[in-house]
Amino acid sequence: MRNDCMGRRQHHNPKMVLLLGNYPPDQQQSMQRFTAMMLRGLTERGIDVEVIKPEPFFGRVLGGFVGKWLGYIDKYILFPFQLRENLRERPAIVHICDHSNAVYVDKCNGIPVVVTCHDLLAVRGALGEDTDCPATLTGRFLQKWILRGLGHARAIACVSAATASDARRLLDGGGRPDISTISLGLNYEYKQIPERIARTRLQESGIVQPDRAFILHVGSDLSRKNRDGVLRIFERVHKQWNGDLVFVGDPLTPELRKLATDIGIAQRVKEIPDASNELLEALYNRALALVYPSRSEGFGWPIIEAQACGCPVICSTVGPLRDVAGDGALFHSVEDEAGFAADVMRLTSPGERQSWSEKSLRNAQRFSTTKMIDEYTQLYNEIGGRP
């Protein structure tokens, strides 16, 4: 069997966990981080584990629309042959790390399959539900294929209770797989760090001034992340509060930069497209707050990252965010941008910020990578694969 140098093989133990990762050109960074977490955690337990993923062949030729379609050849025509070869040694468990790859469940020839379901927003959008994830004709076909694959898995581990509820509703019927909730842990040991270290990291970034206050948003440019809402929230406070707005993640689109210019805040908006874990940790430590008004989410990793650093969180009430943020966050409906702005100003009081920082730290203790790995190994055993 091919050893994808990400994994560690122990040939004296033929039983193993085969992790299915994501196609690299799709740049699904959070899914790649989750796969790496599983690989690291299982390896540390002494479990024989390997990662395989569709490799770019045709899809590396061209980018854009054509590259996307060529990537379908890599993922749905070529990769099943690679998967079949890797299944010859009959691993104890196949763990599909991202539900969007559930199309491979039926290729696993009777081997128990666990699928981690991070959200069903795209599936629900393809079925006509309002999730801010509209689907094209091709997308509707693909999402229904994914849903069919989920229905054939032995077990589905959802990252939040809200997603588990969606899965039970959409997969209702005979032969339904076991559906449980296994919360995510932290993919990096985010924590409170000494102020001097945080300031040094910010200084080295060349983007954020260590002595200047700022609020933070972390996320992609997907419309459901509501970055335009973040800009409007900042516009409500920028005349009362002399701080900046820092975006970490994808670069702002031209439309969002135009919006920042039109509402007079462009000079105070900073962008950090590729923040290292260390820089992001410093940003969480020094930010007045993480502002997270998402329109829909599957989990909301930045919330627990921020909270682990003692950063107050102001977030929307959608999906699982109330469960994830717990008692450690301030909540508003997505439409209540005035409420978000009022809480930004509230946290400019050192006493208020300290109080919510302490609440954040307490809530973050609920999310442990060790606990996550424990629950997955228990699930493997329960469905009959004892790695």
Describe the protein.
This protein is of the alpha/beta class and 387 residues long. It folds into 2 domains: 17-185 and 369-382, Rossmann fold (3-Layer(aba) Sandwich); 195-364, Rossmann fold (3-Layer(aba) Sandwich). The chain has helices at residues 29-44, 64-86, 121-126, 137-152, 161-170, 195-205, 227-237, 254-262, 277-286, 301-308, 321-325, 337-346, 350-364, 369-382; strands spanning 17-20, 49-52, 93-96, 113-117, 155-158, 178-181, 214-219, 244-249, 269-272, 290-292, 313-316, 329-332. The strands form 3 sheets. It has a 6-stranded parallel sheet with strand order 2-1-3-4-5-6.
Low-confidence stretches: 1-14
What is the strand content? 5-15%
CATH homologous superfamily placement of the largest domain: Glycogen Phosphorylase B
**How many separate helices?**
14
Just name the CATH architecture of the largest domain: 3-Layer(aba) Sandwich
Through-space gap between termini: 17 Å
Q: Briefly note the CATH topology name of the largest domain.
A: Rossmann fold
Describe the secondary-structure layout.
Layout: E1 17-20, H1 29-44, E2 49-52, H2 64-86, E3 93-96, E4 113-117, H3 121-126, H4 137-152, E5 155-158, H5 161-170, E6 178-181, H6 195-205, E7 214-219, H7 227-237, E8 244-249, H8 254-262, E9 269-272, H9 277-286, E10 290-292, H10 301-308, E11 313-316, H11 321-325, E12 329-332, H12 337-346, H13 350-364, H14 369-382
Parallel strand pairs: 1-2, 1-3, 3-4, 4-5, 5-6, 7-8, 8-9, 10-11, 11-12
Helix pairs in contact: 1-14, 6-9, 7-12, 10-13
